Amino acid sequence: MRNFFKAFRKLKRDEVQEGSLQEALKRKYVTFQNLLRENNNVLELMADMEEKLSGEYLFDRQYINATVKAIDDGVFKIIEYINELSEKKYQILYKRHEDINDKVQKTLSHKRLIPVSELVIPIENLNMEMISISGGKMAHLGEIKNRLSLPAPDGFSISAYAFKRFVEHNRLSDRMNSYLSEANIENMEALNEISREIQLIVAGAEVPEDLQKAINMAVERLKVEGLNAKVRESNYSTFNIQHSTLKVSVRSSAIREDGEFSFAGQYSTFLNVPENLILQKYKDVVASLFTPRAIFYYKTNGFSEEDMVMSVGVLKMIDAKSGGVIYTKDPNNPESGLMLINAVWGLGTSVVDGTEMPNFYSLARDTGVIAERQIPEQQNMDICTPEGDVKDVRVPDELRNRPSLTDEQISVLFRYAAALEKHYGSPQDIEWAIGHDDQICILQSRPLRMLKVESSTLTVPRRIEKYNILIDKGVIACKGIGCGKAFILKEHDDLEHFPEGAVLVARHTSPKFVTVMNKASAIITDVGSATGHMASLSREYQVPTILDTENATRIIRDGQELTVDAFNCNIYEGRVEELVNLTLNIPRSTFRDTHLLQTLEKVLKIIVPLNLIDPDRENFKPELCETFHDITRFTHEMAMAEIFRTREGEHIESLEDLLSLVAFAETGNAKRLGEQTVILKAGIPMDARLLNIDGGIRKHDLKKAAPEDITSVPFSAFLKGMMNMRWPEPRPVDAKGFFGMIANTAATQEEELLKMGGRSYAIISQNYMNFSIRLGYHFSLVEAYAGDNLNDNYIKFFFKGGGAATERRLRRVRLITEIIKKLDFRVKVTGDVINAMLTKFNLSAIEERLTIMGKLTAYTKQLDMVMYNDAVTDMFIEDFVRDHVKLR
Hints:
Elements: H1 2-10, H2 13-18, H3 21-52, H4 61-85, H5 92-108, E1 120-122, H6 131-146, E2 155-158, H7 160-169, H8 173-180, H9 188-203, H10 209-225, H11 229-233, E3 247-254, E4 269-274, H12 278-287, H13 292-300, E5 310-316, E6 320-327, E7 338-345, H14 349-352, E8 359-364, E9 370-374, E10 380-384, E11 390-394, H15 397-400, H16 407-424, E12 428-435, E13 440-447, E14 469-471, E15 475-478, E16 481-488, E17 503-508, E18 522-527, H17 533-540, E19 545-547, H18 552-555, E20 561-565, E21 570-573, H19 577-580, H20 595-607, H21 628-642, H22 655-658, H23 660-676, E22 678-680, E23 688-694, E24 704-705, H24 713-723, H25 735-746, H26 750-755, E25 760-765, E26 768-775, E27 778-785, E28 794-800, H27 806-821, E29 826-830, E30 833-839, H28 843-859, H29 870-884
Parallel strand pairs: 16-17, 17-18, 18-19, 22-24, 23-25
Antiparallel strand pairs: 1-2, 2-5, 3-4, 3-5, 6-7, 6-12, 7-8, 8-9, 10-11, 12-13, 14-21, 15-19, 16-20, 20-21, 22-23, 25-26, 26-27, 27-28, 28-30, 29-30
Helix pairs in contact: 3-4, 3-20, 3-21, 4-5, 4-21, 5-20, 8-9, 9-12, 24-28, 27-29
């Protein structure tokens, strides 16, 4: 009884006097339930983050920030609740929480520092060490021009520091970040709206006066340097530079672009820009940081808003006769020993955006010998007009079927490409152009993303005969096998409605498709090349992709089920199980090696590891909680100990401890207690009173409760066990057992003997019971929580006997211990006191064990009186286990 009534004695006196004891206990129980609920919520959040670490799920940095905050808030509430239950015993947990949260925030507070530099830097002063200043594209172009001495356009970089100056001058950071923090990558409609709002903000911003001046001076410098030889020979003092014309390309060169992550086609480039529009196009390029597809890309690759820094390149425009892309290795078949070149007449934009089928050349990587060439008829080309526009025009008849490269130009491109790969030490994706003066110019070089497929996995059947093949031609951009229903794309806005697992079928490629690559099982287009921006992205996201099928949008019906074999370039009608069930070692997720996953992993190492495992270990202390998980583990254990002030290891030293009920009655509160309890009428020889605090009894106004009136899950299960046993009649006892009892009783004061027939009390709710049981000389306490969440569920058992000689009491302890160990309890025995606990079993298992515990309660009543020796004790153990311990 001691443990039970400590609950009453610990309650504030005014709570008992002014309000009902029942309500006071209910408040404590509600706090206990709140702690359990918050604990489960925190554990679920941790589990969700651990699941994301697998790399199989799409999320962004905002998910990490929001989930960490939810865990942090939840753990703080748990600490509040445990201190409310324990009368502020665990205040030190606040400090542990603060220290752990500080570590988490330091991990999350990664902020890119933008180095101070000139606002504008000539390309002659750039090299690959200046990526943080001028972005990957311009830094590498400076490297190519200045260190490799390969031809590249003249121009200048508007630096990252200039971007910082632009943002600070217009106070854009907080406004943009407030929008971006709300961006949900799974809601494209909302993402489009956020993008539109941010781009409007940028468009309305002012270029600071010092930046305007620096750009204008760089333009004038570029005009002077670009004068032809005839002008150079003239007298500069008499030549009016303002009368000369200058056309430039204004290109993105974001700090994260063209590095580990390509950002291929995500940002804007403007061609043939007249000098009077350079400032406007600068803002337009900055605004392209916030297109829906760019936001989607940087969020799904784990970058924060602080990582999104835009440097801009301004390059003298090359009026290209032809242009294209070089892959120094075949990304789909790296072992082929081939270099790939795609080329078109006019500007090379139709190669990277996939709107025209280009000339194709494959070259031996070691010699440059042309292994294969394909010269399809080219219908259209992009050109620069004198008015400063880029125009799509018909290819002249005399060029339409002619190669856009001569063998000599192919040879030069091969040498340049080999030099770039050697310099950078990895395969390269190179953009180039040839002017009307037949001079080749390198426009860009970045790492080529290779498809990682083990050779042993390439044994895909060439054709599955019993299935209908709709299309068996095209260009493979990314190998793999995908199956799903066709989604025929008519307008880019339709991407908002792209369903999970569908096959995207489109007329031509577009970098905008990146917004659905996480959901697409495959991509098919009529037109496109394996060297375009979208092809690069499909490899990055590992989406099986077949391009240049010519007529997929006409042959395939919307909603038609397809199986795409992007190994053999076959598109089957229906689901081909033989292909779908193949195990291919192709990583489907792009997340595994991203900065986002690395950040998540670092955060989880601070939050999730569990160091406090065993409550009996010395380290199970609040001051030794090293992670949020430790705090939840510690508080959960302490909550079970503190709910009504029961505490493991707290021994009953005398009969005085068992008579707390009478002592409580003498305080004058017994009447109030009696008024609030319900008499149990269950046909068993036990005087038991129930205190219902929350849904433990069917009707709140009952004076007596039959078993069918009990709605407490754990108490019903325990009561079922007690009722299903035949309660023991007085057993024949040996003289030694009888006199042992008398000897013990003789040492007890007469008034205490009168009190020994005391009643049992149970505090119950729908999911909880705390049952203090007095049967003759024995006292036991069974506390249990039984709900749907197994993390909450537990049974605690305390037993203290009396009335017999020491050896018989110890035999009884051994009997109970051996039996409850078979029920999976952790048991601690000190003398003739048993403390046992069982946690984290599902509801049915908890109910099953409580029923057995109810049976055991009846079984052990006065059993020590007949346990003459150890053999008899063993017999009783075997009998009970055989008849009653039948766990499912």
